[in-house]
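Same chain as my last thread, 393 residues:
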Amino acid sequence: MARWKALMLAGVLGCPAVCSAQGLPMPEPAMPRPAYGSSFMPGPGPMPGAMAYVQEGAQAAPAPAQVAGGQRSIWGDCGDCGPVTPWGGCQDETTTGASGILTTGELFWMRMRRNDPVLLVRQISGGGGGELRDDGALTGYGTSHTIGFRVGGGYLCQNGLFYTVTYTRYRDSNAPQVFVSENPENTTSMLYVGPGVLGSAVTITQGVVQTGWDYDFQTVDLQAGAVFSPTSILDVIVQGGVRFGNLSQTYNTFILDTQAQAFNNETFRTILRGAGPRFGSEARVYLLRNLMIFGKGFTSLVLTNREESSVYANPNTLQTVTYTREEIMPMLEMATGFEVSMFNGHVLVGAAYEWNYFFQAGSSNVDLANNARINRKVDLSLDGVAVRLSLLW
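reply #2:
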């Protein structure tokens, strides 16, 4: 725990950085720093885990070996800057750990995916002996990678507890997809199977189908957690709190039947707003003094209020359908990556690959207008690369 706090607020570049952050003297080492065989576990023999120093009532761990008037941490020699822990933090008798303000910013390069097709294209051809061959192809929404962001801040306490608030925003207005069927022999048909009132209701053999999908995803997370160090090179961070979420989607569909000289047009909009518990954990492995890899996973159960509206028009009809319901939407988040500490630990730069999964976020209830048995249960996913910058005050 204390090693993670030393990293977050004084850096992991050795005891001089930590002593400087705590206002302690920084004498010159009395002898050259020895070269050890391992980059992340130097020194003779294994060192005790960090938890032995922070658990109340635990027995004192063995003292590290003396080096030229000071003591040795796993990062090297500390000289005369005072007692040290095996994670390299020099602390006096009155200091239980560093504390301070944390700020973080992230940029995403991600893509939203809808696990449901939007168009069925069928090709019917004749074969020998009067056989008919029916081939079908399902096409989804053509989304692309775009930029999103996440910003946050918090406070780290001396006892290892921390509190954070984080805002995430990701949105995209995808270019419309256009499907054309000239089909003079009427051997090809296009059937719209996407969400909304038009789903599985309109088939054309000659004409145009145009589809579009826009979305806007926002969350605010209020979290509290603690840091545990089961070994001298591993930190486990446990967090829990509340997620507030807002996910809005708009589906635009236009179908032109040139053979029948008719059209169908629909604008379908769905909005989910709600809040619920969010909890998870993160593990960090320290490979070098200023390099670590991490993996994290979180889950949320958000009680949402879903509002759906569809405006449907053709040459003879203008119809509006609205549905409102409450439902629980599970969310799953995972990421793995690395971070590098610079400038005595006051700047952390990292990159990761992140996955998000939103259960039934793409579901549609307005389909009930045509058939009560058609109530889509569709999931959405969001994945891509994220780069992160953390400033430690």
